[in-house]
Amino acid sequence: MEAKVVYLPKLSRVAVCGGTHGNELSGVYLVRERLKTRKKVEEDELVSVMTVMSNPRAVQQGRRYTETDLNRCFTHATLSSSTSDKTPYEIVRSRELNSQLGPKGSPKAVDLICDLHNTTANMGLCLISYSDCDWICLHIFRYLQSSMPDTPVRYIHFDLPIGEAYSLDSVGKHGFAIEIGPQPHGVVRSNIYTMMQQGVQHMLDWVHLFNSGTQFEGGAVDLYTMVKNVDYPRDRETHNIIAAVHPQLQDRDFCLLHPNEPLFQTFSGETMTYKGPEPFYPFFINECAYYEKGIALSLARRRNVEIPSIQLERK
Fold first, then answer.
1. Distance between CA 222 and CA 45 in Å, rounded?
2. Contact, 201 vs 293, CB < 8 A?
3. HSE-up of 59 (CA within 13 Å, CB side)?
4. What pLDDT is attached to residue 239?
């Protein structure tokens, strides 16, 4: 029996965004390089590619954000809330980006947003998306895996409805973040920059192939669905952190964490173990930017998902 093919609309408009966090420098420099060598909107007969510096004020200051985290400003509630002259810059900027790339959830939104990020965690290259059944995103993920065999490429699924999806990539009809690490914030490492550059180019190559009518065969892919975040142990009175990620766990992103295995080491040298009911896959382990959010690491469940063959719809 011949496998069913899902026919999908052309990806006419794609946005490559960087600098959403102003100190995540691979995306900042990649966007600068694209803008230096290309127009803001690059068009050919198959696709129009827009290059966007998402948070120019934070980039200029070399900070993650100036007043509030831009990559938490794209829920329907935030985008539709009232503003005043005291509204934080990033909320104002999220409205501008929503007008430029959206509006979110509308037929006018760009077809695909790829938002570029760095992490201090040892995560390799990850695509982060709000859907586990967006066949465009999952096929791009599969293409990157096959095109970059020496790079660990993974797909993280945040299980949130689109109205509650808070990041820039949720503005497009399809979208994902490319998250690459480890790289310290405020630093650009050549190998990490090159990995991002290659990932973006492979993504654009895939879009050209899809828009030219190439059929992509279906199959099975593994993805990681986020289950929960874990905070650092804290003093009950001062709320100060009293332990760090255990040395046996540090840098072991996506290595299965079992109950009773080391999780934290207190500053007095005691080991605190993982007390969860089942094993999970940790990621964003000891991410620098998440200290302020009360997150030491996130835990995910690995799932195997069947994706169908896809091809450009026939008119």
1. 34
2. no
3. 18
4. 97
Query: Residue 301, Cβ neighbours under 10 Å: how many?
Result: 14
Q: What is the pLDDT of residue 75?
A: 98
**CA–CA dist 195, 121 (Å, integer):** 15
Place of tokens 């899809």: 210
Residue 203, H or E segment: helix 190-211
Q: Which among 201, 200, 195 is positioned nearest to 182, based on CA atoms?
A: 195
Cα gap 284→63, rounded to integer Å = 19
* Residue 114 near residue 14 (C-beta atoms within 8 A): yes
Short-list 62, 53, 64, 61, CA closest to 27:
53
Nearest to 257 by CA among 236, 277, 234: 277
Please report the pLDDT score of residue 213 as a whole number.
Answer: 97
Other residues' Cβ atoms within 10 Å of the Cβ of residue 8 = 16
Q: Nearest Cα to 173, choosing from 127, 113, 124?
A: 113
b (16+ CB within 10 A) / e for 110-135: bbbbbbbbbbbbbbbbbbbbbbbebb
Q: Are 21 and 181 within 8 A, CB to CB?
A: no
Q: Which DSSP state fits 150?
A: T
What does the alpha-carbon distance between residue 163 and residue 20 come to, in Å, rounded to a whole number?
Answer: 20
E strands, the chain, are: 5-8, 13-18, 41-43, 48-53, 112-118, 124-129, 153-157, 174-181, 219-230, 243-245, 262-266, 271-273, 281-283, 297-307, 309-312
What type of residue is 287? Answer: E
- Residues of the chain under the 70 pLDDT cut: 1-2
What region, left, alpha or beta, does residue 213 occupy, with left being phi > 0 and alpha being psi -120 to 50 degrees? left
Strand partners, 264: 245, 272
φ/ψ of residue 36, rounded to 5: -75, -35
